[in-house]
Amino acid sequence: MCIFAPRIFNADMLIRIYPDNPNVREVRRVADTLRQGGIAVLPTDTLYAFVCSMEFKQSVEAIARLKGFKLKQAKFSMLCSSLSQASEYLRPLDGDTFRLLRSCLPGPYTFILQANNNLNRNYQNANKTIGVRVPDNGVLHAVVEELGAPLIGTSVRLENEDQEVEYLTDPELINEQFGRQVDLVVDGGIGTAEPSTVVDLSEGYPLLVRQGKGEFEI
């Protein structure tokens, strides 16, 4: 079920959470914001990402707009704390696929997989697939664990081509750029401008879509 909820939070909120030792109170604050339909910017093990709860279609539409797309044009990832959590929203995995995922996750990879009916179709690609991420980042892991469900996310972007790459990696500059359009920006330290490696497993065999931070050979 998709729930429509009004935005009720204050803008321009930058909070610091250390990936190696996330503060429980601040993690709960982020999770509570997301639980009520808020939008946040969180660190991953690659780019920072716009994220929201999958329960709020209005919020998912908002992060699509932040990326510059309409809902049906946007390509989202499901950000999970574990492969076990991700599997609740996926069609059954064969043994080879499961072993590949286990060998790569958590890590800087996005695997495109067939979704099941637990995942709202608004967040799937046209062929009923979803990008699945289990980032190796303590902040995101703690927030997802506290929330008790995966997040829907998409990486932050530059507002124009003339901007320095630091606007993708420095949370203070990300907050300067997007802080008034989201409810929270989490400073988890300087990130990387390198995206995740994308591998399509939806047809039962690996197809390298994009080589990113994660090493991958077919």
Question: Could you explain the architecture of this structure?
Answer:
The protein has 218 residues and is an alpha/beta fold. It has a single domain, classed as Alpha-Beta Complex (DHBP synthase). 28% of the residues lie in helices and 20% in strands. The chain contains seven helices and ten strands. It has helices at 24-35, 57-67, 83-87, 95-104, 138-147, 166-169, 171-178, and strands at 14-16, 39-42, 49-53, 77-79, 109-114, 129-133, 151-155, 184-187, 197-200, 207-210. It has a ten-stranded mixed beta sheet with strand order 1-8-2-3-7-4-6-5-9-10, sandwiched between helices. Helix 1 crosses helix 5 (138-147). The longest helix has 12 residues, at 24-35. It is globular and about 45 Å long. Residues 1-11 have low confidence and may be disordered.
Largest beta-sheet characterization = 10 strands, mixed
Based on CA inertia axes, which overall geometry fits? globular
Could you give the order of the helices and strands?
EHEEHEHHEEHEHHEEE
Mean pLDDT: 92
The CATH C-level class name: Alpha Beta
Q: Which regions have little confidence, pLDDT < 50, spanning 5+ residues?
A: 1-11
**C-alpha Rg, in Å?**
16 Å
| Span between termini | 38 Å
**Percent strand:** 15-25%
